[in-house]
Amino acid sequence: MRPSNRELNQMRDIVIETDVTRHAEGSCLIKIGDTHVLCTASLEERVPPFLRNSGLGWVTAEYGMLPRATHTRMRREAKNGQSGRTQEIQRLIGRSLRAGVDRVALGERQISIDCDVIQADGGTRCAAITGGWVALKLAVQKLMKAGDIISDPLVDPVAAVSCGIYAGQAVLDLDYPEDSEAGVDGNFVMLGSGKLVEVQMSAEGSTFSRDQMGQLIDLAEAGVSQLVAAQLAAVG
């Protein structure tokens, strides 16, 4: 039995609220169970120096956790510098979102996605990627409505979910009690079409077989399909 009493293949409740901030070109609050992440998209009519005069757009991301997002208070990283974990996660978010972008169609502009974890209960990076795509889509919709771009540069939704081996069973969408005890832990980033973007998977105390990895990918596909349905419903 899972600590949450969910079935092995059952996601936590998915809630996506859009336009939750006043100034950002796109924003949402994504809630995957008790993991809550605020995602905003900011448009800039410039690109990093290495892309100037290339005709290509850019999508980048930043990630952070509020001091009481977890059980005990953390010091703000602004005071201490970003941890290696934070840097790795925000690079993952940027890479993942760019996988679903036609950067030529976006044009020579940058959209920055900020993902701030308000409350953490496992799977924060996956929620940030999933919510980040919603914020990105809303910003792109504004560009299209204004006539600044002709065709939608977002060729496919991008979403992510965690899966793992908990108590010897393959389970979908790990919450914190499962994540902290899982023998195998994996994060799966996929396009709406089902293609894999990135897999982060490792043994956390026990090894895993090829068959078990296949089970986790199957679970991830089912979970991502639910997340994509929620994304598309959120952006209209």
Any overview of this molecule?
By secondary structure, the chain is α+β, with helices and mostly antiparallel strands. Helix content is 32%, strand content 29%. It is built from six helices and nine strands, in the order ββββαααβαββαββα. It has helices at 77-80, 84-98, 103-106, 124-145, 176-179, 210-235; strands at residues 14-18, 26-32, 35-44, 58-65, 110-119, 158-166, 169-172, 184-191, 196-203. The strands form two sheets. A five-stranded mixed β-sheet has the order 1-2-3-5-4. α2 (84-98) packs across α4 and α4 runs parallel beside α6 (210-235). The longest helix is centred in the C-terminal third of the chain and has 26 residues, at 210-235. The radius of gyration is 18 Å and the shape is globular. The relative contact order is 0.18. The mean pLDDT is 96.
Order of helices and strands: EEEEHHHEHEEHEEH
Number of strands: 9
Class computed from helices, strands and strand pairing: alpha+beta
Average pLDDT reading: 96
Strand order of the largest sheet: 1-2-3-5-4
Distance between the termini: 37 Å
- The radius of gyration computed from the alpha-carbon positions, rounded to a whole number of angstroms, is 18 Å
Which term fits the overall shape?
A: globular
Instruction: Tally the helices.
Output: 6
Low-confidence stretches: none
Tell me the major beta sheet: 5 strands, mixed
Helix content, binned percent: 25-40%
Keywords: Nucleotidyltransferase, RNA-binding, rRNA processing, Transferase, tRNA processing, tRNA-binding
Binding site for phosphate: 85, 123-125
Family: Belongs to the RNase PH family.
GO molecular function: 3'-5'-RNA exonuclease activity; tRNA binding; tRNA nucleotidyltransferase activity
